[in-house]
Amino acid sequence: MNIKYPPSFIEYLSEHPNSKMITAVDDIKKIQKITGEGLLPFLVFPEGQSDPAKYDYYCFDLSKNAPDYKVVVFSIHAIVKEWSNFSEWIEWSSDKILDIK
Fold first, then answer.
1. How, if at all, do strands 78-83 and 39-45 pair?
2. Hey, is 27 helix, strand or coil?
3. Residue 2 lies in a domain
4. Alpha helices (runs of H) in 1-101, residue ranges in sequence order
5. Distance CA 23, CA 31 (A)
6. Domain count of the chain?
7. Is CB count within 10 Å lower at the N or C end of the chain?
8. Which domain covers residue 86, as residue numbers?
9. How many Cβ atoms sit within 10 Å of the Cβ of residue 48?
10. Cα(91)–Cα(101) distance, integer angstroms
């Protein structure tokens, strides 16, 4: 996948240690043991949890065709929120969690 993140998204991640961009293949495989292989994690918010199974994982849902993968939040064994594509998620996250414009 070739995802282009806006510079403000990358800047936010560098300033907020409670969030982590997921890029390493080993990390992705480890997380997919929690989320399932149909989801490709790209961002995690531990939110003070010590158990990785309770983290909020932001993932691309690979069941939808590229390039417009659905984005979902996986938390505690279930998808708890979803967006129809990455652009929609970026717009939502700019207002709600990332505080970027």
1. unpaired
2. helix
3. no
4. 7-15, 25-35, 86-96
5. 11
6. 1
7. C
8. 7-96
9. 8
10. 9
Q: What is the mean pLDDT of residues 82-90?
A: 86
What does each C-alpha distance from 25 to 3, 30, 83 come to in angstroms? 15, 9, 24
Q: What are the pLDDT digits (tens) for 7-61?
A: 767 777 777 677 888 889 999 999 999 999 999 999 998 777 788 888 899 999 9
Place of tokens 């158990």: 51
Round the CA-based radius of gyration of the chain to a whole number and report it: 13
- The one-letter code for the residue type at 6 is P
- CA–CA distance, 74 with 91 (Å, rounded to integer): 19
3-state helix, strand, coil in the chain (%, to 5): 35, 25, 40
Sign of the CA dihedral with 42 first, then 43, 49, and 50 last? positive
Q: Is residue 47 within 8 Å of residue 55, measured between CB atoms?
A: yes
Answering whether pTM is above 0.85, one says no
Q: Quickly state the pLDDT bin for 101 (edges 50, 70, 90).
A: very low
In the chain, the amino acid numbered 56 is D
